[in-house]
Design goal:
Length: 103
C-alpha cells in the first residue's frame, strides 16, 4: 500500500512543483536567512509534499490532477455526459477574468 501512495502522489507533485517552487523562491529571496539553498530546499520540499498529499486525499479535486476519483463522484460524472469538469474550469477562468478586470 505504501508504494501505491507514493505512485499516486507522483502526478500531482509533477504538475504543481514548478509553479509552487517559483512562487516560494521569489518570496523567500527577500528574506536574507531564507535565501540560502539548504533552507529553500527544505521549505519547498515540505510544503510541496504536504500540498501533494492533501490533493491525493481530497475527493473530487483529484480528477484535475489525473488521479481516479471515488466511485459515485460528481467529477467527471454522469450529469451533462461528463462535461462537469469543463464547466467548473470555465467558471474558474471567468471568475479569474472578472476579478482581474475589476481590480
Amino acid at each position: 500500500k505504501q508504494w501505491y501512495q507514493r505512485r499516486v502522489m507522483a502526478m500531482p507533485f509533477y504538475l504543481i512543483h514548478q509553479q509552487l517552487l517559483v512562487g516560494i523562491a521569489s518570496g523567500a529571496l527577500w528574506v536574507p536567512y531564507l535565501r540560502s539553498f539548504p533552507i529553500m530546499l527544505i521549505i519547498t520540499s515540505v510544503l510541496i509534499i504536504t500540498i501533494t498529499y492533501l490533493i491525493t486525499k481530497s475527493g473530487s479535486l483529484r480528477y484535475f490532477f489525473g488521479l481516479p476519483t471515488l466511485i459515485g463522484s460528481w467529477l467527471p460524472g454522469k450529469p451533462l455526459r461528463g462535461f462537469v469538469p469543463v464547466l467548473v474550469l470555465t467558471g474558474v477562468v471567468l471568475l479569474q477574468m472578472t476579478l482581474t478586470r475589476t481590480l
